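TA notes, week 10

Several of you asked for a full example with nothing omitted. So below is the full record: structure tokens for the whole chain, then the designed sequence directly under it. When grading your own attempts, check the secondary structure regions first.
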């Protein structure tokens, strides 16, 4: 039996989609999982600030020390329009989350908890959509595709953390129409 919709909030949907896009761009599954989680986290921070849920970082004091040029940023990866800081570990490249390398096993558990028994079906629909685009094109349109299929939630603060319906049939149709 094919699932047509599931009830889920947007964070795991974006995490999984960003993971699949990263894999399509050539990253290993473990790296892609940490990148996907980081993209969703950066997106949530940005939206939380916009809604007034999170405070914007305090401005740096103006002093001679602050006037010095900042050291060059560390290595990063751009995925779905977000710049994600990364580090190379003994296990491979990992997104940095809260000053530590991301844990791909923890991200996989998070996805399994949020999607439950529908995870493999959601993942299959998203993979089909990702494969409908050449990697370079997917890299440029990936976030716009997500915006088309993400669950609908109430606007503003009411929608923060709210669950909405993820329409798997719509994702499948987007792949077919690509």
């Amino acid at each position: 039996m094919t699932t047509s919709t599931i009830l889920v909030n947007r964070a795991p949907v974006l995490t999984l989609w960003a993971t699949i896009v990263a894999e399509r761009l050539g990253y290993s599954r473990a790296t892609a999982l940490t990148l996907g989680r980081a993209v969703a986290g950066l997106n949530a921070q940005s939206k939380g600030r916009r809604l007034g849920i999170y405070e914007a970082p305090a401005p740096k004091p103006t002093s001679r020390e602050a006037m010095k040029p900042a050291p060059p940023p560390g290595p990063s990866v751009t995925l779905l329009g977000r710049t994600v800081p990364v580090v190379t570990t003994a296990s491979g490249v990992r997104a940095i989350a809260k000053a530590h390398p991301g844990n791909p096993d923890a991200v996989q558990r998070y996805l399994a908890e949020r999607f439950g028994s529908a995870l493999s079906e959601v993942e299959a629909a998203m993979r089909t959509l990702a494969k409908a685009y050449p990697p370079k094109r997917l890299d440029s349109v990936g976030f716009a595709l997500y915006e088309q299929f993400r669950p609908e939630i109430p606007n503003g603060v009411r929608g923060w953390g709210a669950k909405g319906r993820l329409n798997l049939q719509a994702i499948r149709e987007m792949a077919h129409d690509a």
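Helices lie at 10-24, 29-51, 64-67, 104-115, 119-131, 135-149, 168-177. Use that as a sanity check on your answer.
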